Amino acid sequence: MALVIKDRVKETTETSGTITYVLEGASTGFESFASVGNGNTTYYCCTDGTNFEIGIGTYTSSGTTLARTTILQSSNSDNAVSWADTSAKSIFCTLPAEKIIFQDANDVVPEVDSTAITFSIALGG
Length: 125
Description:
Helix content: under 10%
Number of domains: 1
Number of helices: 0
Shape: globular
Radius of gyration: 16 Å
Strand order of the largest sheet: 1-6-3-4-5-2
Largest sheet: 6 strands, antiparallel
Number of strands: 6
Strand content: 25-35%
């Protein structure tokens, strides 16, 4: 399983409670989570316009679902949101702020724990 980052992936879900999200197909002008690939993980956000959940989800093509693998932030004290009803919610790929490395206004990258960083270099030939 790989972590896959994709642009313009957005679907709807009518999932209630805290179960795995059942995906209902791509919104107009967007791709579906199928572009992430079966068994892969991705960052996601699900919202009803008031409540929200941001996390790492695992996509499964059988049944077209997105499992709530890790909850990063939410309107429920950073726990899984228990959706009260089956009304349509938007679910889409996003890049959580806590997962990015950035340059500040002075073009300086803030200090990070270098023991946690692994680099992989692919050389063409």
